[in-house]
Amino acid sequence: MNPSEPIDRRTELVGNLASVRRRIADACLAAGRSPREVSLIAVTKTFPASDVRLLAELGQRVVAENRDGEAAAKAAELAAGGVDVHWHFVGQLQRNKARSVVRYADVVQSVDRPALVTALGAAVAAHRDRPLDVLIQVSLDDAPGRGGVAPAKLPALVDDVIAAAPRLRLRGLMAVAPLGGDPDVAFGRLAEHAAWLREREPDASMLSAGMTGDLEAAVRHGATHVRVGSGLLGRRAKLG
User: Fold this and answer.
1) What integer pLDDT is reported at residue 2 of this predicted model?
2) Residue 209 clears pLDDT 70, i.e. is over it
3) Which residues carry this modification: N6-(pyridoxal phosphate)lysine (predicted)?
C-alpha cells in the first residue's frame, strides 16, 4: 500500500468490490451458472489513476474506459508506475482515435461500423506488434448516439472483422440495454445474436453486457463479462 493513499478510499473500494462480486455470484447461482463464467470489468471513466491503481492492488486488473484522451493518460501513468492493468475501450470510437487506442487497449468492445474496422486494422499494422481483440457492439434499440450496429447489418460486419485478421481478432459481442426498457427482453435478443455468432465463430464467445443496474439480467442471458462503474467506484467524479 502506498502510505500516501487515503485509507478511507481503499476501504471503500474493498467493500464495493466485495459487494459487486457477491451480486455476480448470487446472479450466477440464480441462473444455474458458475461464478467462474462471469468476469467483472471495472469502468473507471472520470475516476483518477490512483483508483485504478488501488483496484489493481486489490486484484481487479481489468478496467474499462470510454474516452481516449482520459484512457491514454491513465494508461501511460500506470505503465510508468509499473502497474499491470488490462484495458478495455468501451465507448464510441472515432476513426481518428484508432492510432491512439491501439497503443494501450487490450480489447476494443465498441466496433460498430466498417470504417472503424478499417481504421483499427491500419492502426494495428502501424503501431502494434500483436493482434487487437475486438467485440462488435450490437444496437438493442434505435436510439441515436449510443453506438452499435443494427442487427440486420451484423453478419456483414462480422465478415469485415474476420477479413481484417490477423490484425483484428473477433472475440464476441457487446451491448447496452435500452434506456427505460426491460433489460431481460433486450438481453434475451442479444443472447440470440451471441448464439448465432458462436455457432459461426466458436472462438467469438465473449458476451459483454450488463452494468450496475442490470447485471443480474445480463447474467441470466449468458453474459460472460459485466461492466460496473458506479456500483464499484461510486458517483461519477470530475477529473482535473
Assistant:
1) 58
2) yes
3) 45
- Three-state SS string over the chain comes to CCCCCCHHHHHHHHHHHHHHHHHHHHHHHHHCCCHHHCEEEEECCCCCHHHHHHHHHCCCCEEEECCHHHHHHHHHHHHHCCCCCEEEECCCCCHHHHHHHHHHCCEEEEECCHHHHHHHHHHHHHHCCCCEEEEEEECCCCCCCCCCECHHHHHHHHHHHHHCCCCEEEEEEECCCCCCCCHHHHHHHHHHHHHHHHHHCCCCCEEECCCCCCHHHHHHCCCCEEEECHHHHCCCCCCC
Residue the block writes with cell 449510443: 146
Maximum separation of any 2 CA atoms in the chain, in Å: 54
Is residue 114 exposed (0-12), middle (13-18) or buried (19+ Cβ within 10 Å)?
Answer: middle
Distance CA 208, CA 223 (A): 6
Mean of pLDDT over the chain: 94
42, 24, 22: which is closest to 86 by C-alpha?
A: 42
Asked if 176 and 141 touch (Cβ cutoff 8 Å), the reply is no
Residue 91, all three cell numbers = 465507448
Distance in angstroms (rounded) separating the CA atoms of residues 1 and 204:
38
Per-residue burial over 231-240, b if 16 or more Cβ lie within 10 Å, else e, is bbbeeeeeee
Long-range contacts formed by 200-206: CB under 8 A, 24+ apart: 200/158, 201/158, 201/162, 201/170, 203/170, 203/171, 204/170, 204/171, 204/172, 204/173, 205/171, 205/172, 206/135, 206/171, 206/172, 206/173
